Amino acid sequence: MTAISEKFQKAKANGEGLLIGYITAGDPTPEQTPKIADALIRGGIDILELGLPFSDPIADGPTIQEASLRALNAGTTPLKVLDIAEQIKTEHNIPLVVMTYYNPVFRHGVDSFLSQAKVAGVDGFIVPDLPLEEAGDYRKAAKTQGLDTIFLATPATSNERLRKIVDASSGFLYLVSRFGVTGTQTSIADSTMQLIKHVQPFTADKVPLAVGFGISKPEHVQQVIAAGADATIVGSAFINIVKNNAQNLKTALQELQTSAMALKSATKL
Questions:
Q1: For residue 188, what pLDDT is reported?
Q2: Distance between CA atoms of 166 and 200, rounded to whole angstroms?
Q3: Which of 43, 60, 196, 211 has the largest count of CB atoms under 10 Å?
Q4: What ranges do the domains of the chain cover?
Q5: Has 49 been annotated as catalytic?
Q6: Rounded Cα–Cα distance for residues 209 and 194 (Å)
Q7: What is the rounded distance in angstroms from the CA atom of residue 139 to the CA atom of residue 19?
Q8: Residue 231: its pLDDT value, please?
């Protein structure tokens, strides 16, 4: 059983959902990212998702795009992201997931990069621009390293394709809650609740279901978990805290911890 699977199993036994926190590695600097991660972990996040900054993040909205640019300007490289992961894992026994576009992995060599990621303490990968049909070699390399491969499903995913994605996913299935790109929103649409209820029977007893894109408030988390999701993914809300307190890291860390605590409290069933 992988670290991610074990985390979900324990949460289910305790009658609660998981809170997955996303931050862009290297934003605002590589040196500050472990401190930001520490604040979120102290606040109660169950799994940390590190975004590997990329120059053309097609699935990300303005908030994460800007964070990627700040990270790249600060000198963050793919290997530096693995260094950051290793620093975090040295201090915290928490599952780590890296979200990256495929190009950086391909350029470094799939086998080599995944091997280095495993050594650094990474537990799984999300590669949003790698289609299931082209992921054979990647999946094989990830399985060899004991890394979870987390695929995405969207509101446009057909039932037939959803079955295939569920069968190929490990760790959890990342359900994109809406059309468009990442970013906070003021409320969770009824269509998102219906989408969760539609997808949940496909994932039941196969792979945990985590829902992301637009979740930023405790009431959002509560609604998503109540609808049948096993976890919620929060990213832009945390990144906005970092951005808004760029000149005062202490304040940013305090707000990140407080925000994570509020969001985590909403995962109790």
A1: 65
A2: 11
A3: 211
A4: 3-265
A5: yes
A6: 14
A7: 25
A8: 97
Catalytic residue among 16, 27, 46, 49: 49
Q: Which of 155, 230, 221 is nearest to 194 (CA)?
A: 155
One of 16, 27, 46, 60 is an active-site residue; which one? Answer: 60
Pick the CATH number of 3-265 from 3.20.20.80, 3.40.50.970, 3.40.50.720, 3.20.20.70: 3.20.20.70
The side-by-side arrangement of strands in the sheet containing 209-212 is 148-150, 124-126, 96-99, 47-51, 18-24, 231-234, 209-212, 173-176, 152-153
Tokens of 48: 């940390």
Band of residue 268 on the pLDDT scale cut at 50, 70, 90 = confident
Number of residues in the chain: 269
Are the beta carbons of 97 and 47 closer than 8 angstroms? yes
Q: What percent of the chain has pLDDT over 70?
A: 94
Asked if 35 contacts 249 with a C-beta cutoff of 8 angstroms, the reply is yes
pLDDT in tens, 241-267: 999 998 899 999 999 999 999 999 999
pLDDT, tens only, 3-20: 999 999 999 999 999 999
For residue 180, the model assigns a pLDDT of 42
Side chain identity at residue 197, one-letter code = K
Site of tokens 């201090």:
91
| Residues 208, 92, 68, 28, Cα dihedral to 10° | 150
